[in-house]
């Protein structure tokens, strides 16, 4: 432990990891009715960790009429579906997946 | 031909069947999904299919792998078409072959149900009155 005897040295010590806010850059891909509703198909956003997939989705869709999207919007991170509770990490490619209609 | 792919050209039933044909596989099965002339009473003039391409291909590969695990020895070929399709054109083609008919038929059914359940592909219908609508889909279950 640093026992430097000058107040400025101890005040300059970085905050413990757990308390440090961590801004992250995340790419978000939008598709179909969501891309139409938000007027774009991709965005790069800065968010502060920790954030979950579900929180990110809900924040991004706050301005969207959810009733217009009939069904739950799932989240994919780096091309795989994740649970809403999954953490999102810096550099992740997040995609909001409205109800799918392939086949 | 790779087992599962997205294409932007007409789907060929012959090519899909040829991809799974083998002297040891005496049973082949084929499914084609084609654009219908109407949906819920509304006359359709075409459908535009779009996808999260990279993830859709990954999901299609996973589905083929799952089908092969469920039915050891089965060969599967899948194509899903993207872009604007006219009535009657095929949006999806699935071929499966096996020494026995039950696994071939079951594998085709398994694959189409799995595609509909989880692959990130969307369809926008064009109607004869000029309107367009995103077709309601299925939320992939967690």
What can be said about this structure in brief?
The complex is a heterodimer of chains A (103) and B (142). With 103 residues, chain A is an alpha+beta fold.
Describe the structure.
The complex is a heterodimer of chains A (103) and B (142). Chain A has a five-stranded mixed sheet with strand order 2-1-5-3-4, covered by helices on one side. The termini of chain A are far apart. Chain A has 103 residues and is α+β, with helices and mostly antiparallel strands. Chain B is an alpha+beta fold and 142 residues long. In chain B, 31% of the residues lie in helices and 38% in strands. In chain B, the strands form two sheets. In chain B, strands 3, 4, 6, 8 and 9 form a five-stranded antiparallel sheet that branches. A four-stranded mixed sheet of chain B has the order 1-5-7-2, sandwiched between helices. In chain B, a hairpin with a 4-residue loop joins strand 8 and strand 9. In chain B, helix 2 runs antiparallel to helix 3. Chain B is globular, with a radius of gyration of 16 Å. The termini of chain B are far apart.
List the helices and strands and how they pair.
The complex is a heterodimer of chains A (103) and B (142).
Chain A (H helix, E strand, L loop, with lengths): L6 H5 L10 E8 L2 H7 L3 E8 L3 H8 L13 E4 L2 E3 L10 E5 L6
Parallel strand pairs in A: 1-5
Antiparallel strand pairs in A: 1-2, 3-4, 3-5
Chain B lengths: L3 E4 L5 H8 L6 E8 L3 E2 L2 E10 L1 H18 L4 E7 L1 E4 L3 E9 L2 H18 L2 E7 L4 E3 L8
Parallel strand pairs in B: 1-5
Antiparallel strand pairs in B: 2-7, 3-4, 4-6, 4-8, 5-7, 8-9
Helix pairs in contact in B: 2-3
């Amino acid at each position: 432990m640093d026992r430097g005897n000058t107040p400025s040295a101890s005040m300059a010590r970085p905050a413990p990891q757990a308390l440090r806010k961590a801004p992250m850059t995340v790419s978000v891909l939008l598709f179909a009715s969501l891309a139409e509703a938000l007027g774009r198909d991709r965005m790069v956003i800065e968010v502060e960790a920790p954030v979950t997939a579900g929180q990110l989705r809900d924040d991004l869709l706050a301005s969207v009429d959810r009733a217009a999207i009939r069904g739950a919007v799932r989240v994919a991170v780096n091309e795989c579906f994740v649970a809403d509770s999954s953490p999102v990490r810096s550099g992740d490619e997040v995609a909001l997946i409205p109800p799918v209609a392939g086949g | 031909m790779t087992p599962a792919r997205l294409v932007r050209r007409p789907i060929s039933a012959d090519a899909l069947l040829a991809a799974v044909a083998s002297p040891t596989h005496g049973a082949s099965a084929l499914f084609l999904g084609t654009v219908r002339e109407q949906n819920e009473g509304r006359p359709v003039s075409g459908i535009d299919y779009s996808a999260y391409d990279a993830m859709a291909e990954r999901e299609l590969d996973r589905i083929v792998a799952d089908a092969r695990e469920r039915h050891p020895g089965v060969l599967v070929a899948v194509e899903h078409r993207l872009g604007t399709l006219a009535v009657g054109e095929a949006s999806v083609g699935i071929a499966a072959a096996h020494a026995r008919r039950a696994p071939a038929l079951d594998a085709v059914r398994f694959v189409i149900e799995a595609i509909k359940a989880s692959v990130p592909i969307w369809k926008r219908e064009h109607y004869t009155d000029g309107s367009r609508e995103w077709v309601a889909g299925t939320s992939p279950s967690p």
